[in-house]
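Repro:
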Amino acid sequence: MSVTFPEGIRAAGVASGIKGDGALDLAFVGFSDGGAHVGAAVFTKSAAAAAPVQVSRDHLRTSKGRIRGVVLSSGNANALTGGAGLDAARLMTSLAVANLGGEKSEYLVCSTGLIGIPFPIERIEPGLALLAAELGTDPHAGERAAHAIRTTDTFAKEAQAVGDGFRVGGMAKGAAMIAPNMATMLCVLTTDATLTPERAQSALGWVVDQTFNRITIDGCTSTNDTVVLLASEVGSEPGPDFEESLLEVAAKLAYAIVSDAEGGSKVGRVRVSGGATVSEAETCARRVASSLLVKCSLLGSDPYWGRVLAEVGNALPEADMSAVSVAYQGIRVCEGGLDASARLSVADRRRLDHRMQEREIVIEIDLGRGSESVEVLTADIGHGYLEENRGTS
């Protein structure tokens, strides 16, 4: 269940001292033959993009989608750190060349952690040497890499899928500062399929839009969002099922991120149907999924449809609320924009009360305007999130 699941991929995770507590904090994912192969990436759209994002964008463009791997660090975001931060990100690629060969433009870099804190670049030189010595193709190597990118994550997030003649693996990190603007996270997806750089970039962009762009925890977008796809080209060119397998892995990782929300206890699936367009269905789903009041209702296991409709009305000012219905856990509590709970049988009321205690809550909203539908994942908000984030974290 790791990035090393496909053939031709190697990885490692080591403790370089960035975190200062002996925890794994530096990782590498690349190709087992040491060469440059197909790579693609999607980055944050934020104007406050971190130094590693800026450097990786340039390298991906210069290399024309042929890269050797990605170096990832955790414990310090190297974001909003000025020229010194850019120098640090560039030095990470220079040290990768010194230890692993190739050209600087053939390496991408990612960092995650505290924003605005000078990056401890002195930790990277010995760390890269450790990484080079620890690289492996076994599941344990991939698992260590996944652990090395964690910050407030409570577990390593890994996934895999098998397609027709190819494999896909992946790892991700994220538990807060999660809001769609590409996504808020670090993620590396790997495959042994043979892809052109153009297909890799197109497939990754489509998958990100369907998964990581449809999750939210706290409405806060990070400075370091990066999703990378590496293709070792060991196998043949895949059929159209490649994109579906890539989607499967990304969807598992996206769900894992939301389920690990800081201080969270529930995952919410906000399903909007009956949209006149995909865009308006997505707008509604995002608005409901991002609502602090809806999140509080999830925390309290309260099927409070009024908060949902209030967000729908704000998202679609032209909507006819008398056409809208809302269901929690498959039980309709609002019909025609009005309370429908009085019509529920005693058995349905009991079933709803019971099912609202479950870990996953499904909120279904039918707009009654068309045939388009969209799902966005969210999480409740609780005291744990406030405790984690009321200071620098």
